Amino acid sequence: MDLQHTRNFSIIAHVDHGKTTLSDRLLESTQTVANREMKEQLLDSMDLERERGITIKSHPVSMAYQSEAGPMYKLNLIDTPGHVDFSYEVSRSLAACEGALLLIDAAQGVEAQTVANAHLATSQNLTIIPVINKIDLPSADLDKCLRQLEDILAIPGEDAILASAKNGIGITEILEAVSARIPPPRWADYDGTRCLIFDSIYDSYQGVICYVRVFSGTIKPGDTAMLMSDGLKVEIKEVGVFTPARLKTKELTAGNVGYIVTNIKSVADIKLGDTLTHMQSPAKEMLPGYKEVRPMVFSGMYPLDTGDYEKLKAALGRLRLNDAALIYQQESSMALGFGFRCGFLGLLHMEVIQERIRREHGVDIILTYPSVIYRVETTKGETLMVDNPVNMPAPNDIEDILEPTIVAAIHIPTDAVGDVLALVMEKRGICEHTETLDDSRLMLTCRLPLNEILVDFFDRLKSITHGYGSMDYEVGEYQSADLVKMDILVNADPVDAFASIVHRQKAENKGRQLCERLAEIIPPQMFKIPIQAAIGGKIIARETVRALRKDVTAKCYGGDITRKRKLLEKQKEGKKRMKQVGNVSIPQEAFIKVLKTN
Fold first, then answer.
1. What does the alpha-carbon distance between residue 315 and residue 555 come to, in Å, rounded to a whole number?
2. For residue 184, what is the DSSP state?
3. pLDDT of 49 higher than 70
4. What is the structure's pLDDT at 332?
5. Positive or negative CA dihedral for 274, 245, 7, 94?
């Protein structure tokens, strides 16, 4: 297919606005997939994606479409993940396109990620085709959607296509718009071969398979190529296109989207957004937009059964083969035994990895309280990056602690603004800007510390707004904060699994909650056990686990009270002596209960 009749496009939308259903209808309409092979969420290959209705791993597909005007078009659809955790992957998928279908739920209207994805597409100079989806719903409000499209996104309402992906309404109009409105592939006349790597997977037989968009030049089996970010040499073993199964071809030419089988054995060596070029005659400049992907959230991962350590190690190794964003290194805890410190893109990424380890590899695991990377400036003038509270220097050695922030766009109904602002303030955030979207919705632009939104922020936002609130965020700057390391001491011994970095104002409240929870869970011993929360040498909260008491006065009958008192004093002395030498054994269940509660 010639360049003038090739179209590369993506579908972008807020979560659950019908992106995957629309891609199913496009495949059906163009007869790319036979009816007997068709199934719901065809491009979602993982069980987890199907159950949750989210796309975790993007999948491209090439379709042939006979337009009503006459010419046959080749349409390359590059699917994108839908969650904010994978925003860099979305940006790389968009970089491989010339246009995008912007999907809006007719009942929900423009949401936070709709705005974020539209800005992402506009910043890359893509042609945006708005599609109002789910118009068949009884609660659909087309006038509101078209008004929001013009007011919020500055896209003319008459450009929108009305559709229902579920019932197949408007699919032909969408395909015609893609053919007519999206321009042919750009930068094809550049001198030299340039291929954008927008995704990669690991195949146990073929090694690393790169998903590429060829911008200029030609690539074929037997070529020796080079990754421009680090100069790594790559041998091309096979090339092909997606239909949506992999179909081997002789070569990939400019404007095409396909796959390249390489001689590389680790996905970590291939970086998303990198440019592939010929080794003999390399391109002079990379394709724009490349950056290193860094984990945002860190957590300790331990097997529930200590005998499963090797299984967990093997499971992480296999997941890492297909997910270069996952990083891990070995660590050990006095309380939980041997495990790994893992880095994730965000909380959804962490949840997905946890679920895949449990399902695909049969290992039950426990995760410690998630934390972020803090920048610690010491009195010696050094700057340390700390992702684990255990590695925090002593308070006397710390000059300043800086924490990462996010800039969040929060879309909420007007009547929930007071409660949402109270939630933002509780999480140490500030509202920088308020924008009225229409008569019933607002958009708040807030700056919040990243560690404050890790656990329950999104759930509480949904609860306050009765499910109508939505949020999208991007990473902001580091800012100085009054943070401290809080230790939990059991019988004066610190327990590393419960150590955390908290804001000084919140430390006492959190320490008291944790001590109370532990006091309920730790079984009584032969002596009283103090459970304390401490910042440095200062105790800020305390609870006591009661002692098991033997009734030493049971053998006394009648007689003077002094005899009973003497026996009780003797028992008290024994308990005191026992406390000095006694060790408290905290059962594994106690850690699991406390960490799961957190």
1. 59
2. P
3. no
4. 85
5. negative
Secondary structure in 3-state letters for 105-169: ECCCECCHHHHHHHHHHHHCCCEEEEEEECCCCCCCCHHHHHHHHHHHHCCCHHHCEECECCCCE
Q: How many CA atoms lie within 13 A of 562 on its CB side?
A: 1
Q: How far apart are CA 578 and CA 508, in angstroms?
A: 30
299 touches 350 (CB < 8 A): yes
The pLDDT tens digits of the residues spanning 200-259 come to 888 888 888 999 999 999 999 999 999 998 889 999 999 999 988 889 999 999 999 999
| DSSP class of 454 | S
Q: How many CA atoms lie within 13 A of 586 on its CB side?
A: 27
Strands 72-78 and 6-13: parallel
Looking at the chain, the whole-number percentage of residues with pLDDT higher than 90 is: 35
Mean pLDDT of the region 5-11: 93
Residue owning tokens 């009884």? 138
Please write the tens of the pLDDT for every residue from 144-194.
899 989 988 889 989 999 999 888 899 999 999 999 999 999 988 888 899
5 exposed, middle or buried (CB, 10 Å; 0-12, 13-18, 19+)? middle
The DSSP symbol for 547 reads B
CA nearest to 22, candidates 158, 153, 129:
129
> Residue 317 is which amino acid?
G
Cβ atoms of 160 and 175 within 8 Å: the answer is no
Tokens of 385: 């990056």
pLDDT at residue 426 in the model: 92
H or E segment and range at residue 400: strand 398-413
> What rounded mean pLDDT belongs to the chain?
85
Nearest in space to 153 (alpha carbons), one of 179, 186, 130, 185: 130
Contact between residue 112 and residue 470 where contact means Cβ atoms under 8 Å apart: yes
Q: Under a CB-based contact definition with an 8 Å cutoff, are residues 107 and 137 in contact? A: yes
Mean pLDDT calculated for residue range 574-589: 59
Cα-flanking dihedrals φ and ψ of residue 417, to 5°?
Answer: -60, -40
For residue 230, what are the contacts with CB-CB under 8 A and spacing of at least 6? 271
pTM of the model: 0.78
3-state secondary structure of 183: coil
Q: Which domains does the chain have, with CATH numbers?
A: 3-181 (3.40.50.300), 194-278 (2.40.30.10), 297-367 (3.30.70.870), 374-480 (3.30.70.240), 485-597 (3.30.70.2570)
Question: Quick one: pLDDT band at residue 417, thresholds 50, 70, 90?
Answer: very high
In angstroms, the CA 225 to CA 193 distance is 10
Q: H/E element holding 93? A: helix 87-95
Confirm if 257 and 273 have CB atoms less than 8 A apart: no
What is the per-residue DSSP string for 310-379? HHHHHHHHHHHHH-TT-EEEEEEETTTEEEEEEEESSHHHHHHHHHHHHHHH---EEEPPPB--EEEEET
- Cα separation of 400 and 331, whole Å? 26
Average of per-residue pLDDT across 31-45: 61
| SS3 state of residue 53 | coil
Residue 514's SS3 state is: helix
What is the residue type of 264?
Answer: I
Nearest alpha-carbon partner for 242 in 505, 365, 96, 64: 64
Q: Would you call 491 helix, strand, or coil by DSSP?
A: coil
